[in-house]
What does this fold into?
Amino acid sequence: MTRILVFSGATRPASLNRRLAAIATRDLRAMGATVTEISLLDFPLPFVDEDGRPNPPQEAHAFNAALQGHDGIFIATPEYNSGYPPILKNALDWASMCNGGKPGLGGKVVALGAASPSPRGGYRVLTQLRSTLELGFGALVIPEMAPVPFANKALAEDGTIADEASAKMLAACLQRLVAEVKLRQKD
Ligand SMILES: Cc1cc2nc3c(=O)[nH]c(=O)nc-3n(C[C@H](O)[C@H](O)[C@H](O)COP(=O)(O)O)c2cc1C
It folds into this structure.
């Protein structure tokens, strides 16, 4: 079974990245993966700091359990001033304190997408988040990434992607994610 967790770093009901996450969920299921889609809003957490380490809140353990219970992860992230939104890093940092000292995403294959109304499609946050997940969390982040420029026009509510280049990049990203997870299951 190819178990993949999907979530976005977005909070708005009308979020473009939540829409991208929903598209990824649909497409991964069509590839035969077993997908769980979660919302970070279901894990309300205070600001993380060292004092939280001895006794992380139940929501931190629940989010970490969701991460650890899957082999692959797809994250659709907004770009805020070239970087990731605080809710995303806060949740990941909390989860890293619930993993018995092991890297928070050790052994996980991670794929990244970003939807933005800008012409760059959130490409800068993808490079920043990739570096953090690899160096700080021990994840294997696949090279194929899925930026969606002009996402306010490209991502329709019915789940179609109007921009062909974005649709191709997302397809390549999801296919590699599934392939890498399967490869590791054979090892
Ligand atoms: C504080 C803030 C900073 C932003 N900085 C960027 C940016 O650096 N690059 C970009 O493409 N969009 C930027 N945006 C615009 C977001 O891409 C846009 O709000 C997007 O719709 C957010 O994702 P969402 O629709 O999933 O909420 C920024 C938005 C906010 C609120």
Residues 15 and 27 are 19 Å apart (CA to CA). The beta strands are 3-8, 34-37, 72-76, 109-115, 140-141, 146-148. The first strand starts at residue 3 and ends at 8. The mean pLDDT is 97.
